[in-house]
Design a protein that fits this description.
Largest sheet: none
Number of helices: 3
Radius of gyration: 20 Å
Helix content: 55-70%
Number of strands: 0
Distance between the termini: 39 Å
Structural class: mainly alpha
């Protein structure tokens, strides 16, 4: 069963029982990623490092990663 199908079943049940609707799947995904990134930067500062920008780190990984031949 996919997440969408489960969401539709949960929405139907909630409407039948008069309960609040569940959040749609994927609604908070971006917020979770941002919170994880902020926490990682915070931990870096506590460990004595610098809070680097995530785009620079991702670009550096892409440029320095060895490519398979």
């Amino acid at each position: 069963m996919t997440a969408i199908e489960q969401y539709l079943i949960d929405t139907y049940r909630a409407s039948q029982h008069g309960e609040p609707m569940p959040p749609p799947p994927g609604r908070d995904d971006v917020a979770v990623v941002r919170a994880a990134r902020s926490y990682q930067q915070f931990q870096a500062v506590l460990d004595g490092g610098e809070a680097r920008h995530p785009w620079r780190a991702a670009l550096r990984r892409m440029l320095t990663r060895p490519r398979p031949c």
